[in-house]
Automatic annotation (TrEMBL):
It holds the Pfam family adh_short. It comes from Candidatus Thermokryptus mobilis. Gene3D superfamilies: NAD(P)-binding Rossmann-like Domain. This is 3-oxoacyl-[acyl-carrier protein] reductase. Belongs to the short-chain dehydrogenases/reductases (SDR) family. GO terms for molecular function: oxidoreductase activity. InterPro entries: NAD(P)-bd_dom_sf, Sc_DH/Rdtase_CS, SDR_fam. Coiled coil: none annotated. Keywords: NADP, Oxidoreductase. The keyword Oxidoreductase applies.
Amino acid sequence: MLLENKVAIVTGASRGIGRSIALLFSKEGAKISAIARTEQDLKNLKDEIESTGGKCLIFKGDVSDENDVKKSVEKTIQEFGKIDILVNNAGFGIYKPVVELTTEEFDKMVAVNFRGVFLFTKYVLPHMMRQNSGVIINISSIAGTLGVRNMAVYAATKWAVNGFTESIMHEVREYNIRVASLCPGSVDTNFSNVAGSNPPTKDKVLKPEDVAQTALLIATLPERAMLSHLILRPTNPR
């Protein structure tokens, strides 16, 4: 198994891309620490992982809450003894013109999509630096590489994640820690980052499993090699 004896934290793990990453990483031997806000979905994930012999720790919490982040990282260390992989996946978007977007909606997108990435990275990195190894995968978006009509704030948070990822990579690569941003195009989840009057054909867009497989590739490269920024697109979405 590609991730045997590894420990992975996955945020936003109860649904969509996060859930697929947690399941695939567990299948490949990783012990999973899953964080999300929906407790029943987390319990369902835990049951599915443990039914196949895997190990899963769940934590109901908000990635933008510093106390929740600290507690979940501490609980992971107490339970599993280390953290090898962090997948910052939690995020959401609101499809509105800027003039219709409320300040509260702005604050919430920034808090979940960017503050959450900052907090988990801040509290996981000291453990990775002490062990002189680790992988951080930040699930961004193709919207973090180009402007998207009616998604200005969502796109801005993903641009921020990409800039943060690139900068952190330079800070910690001397500790053999690899940091990558993974930027999917349209994914068949509850939230598609390409919306509008002419959406891609549903059966041709990316599936959460495609993103999970790409995250696994990033996490399992030889330690001397690092993918720092990757855009994943549907082959033929129309």
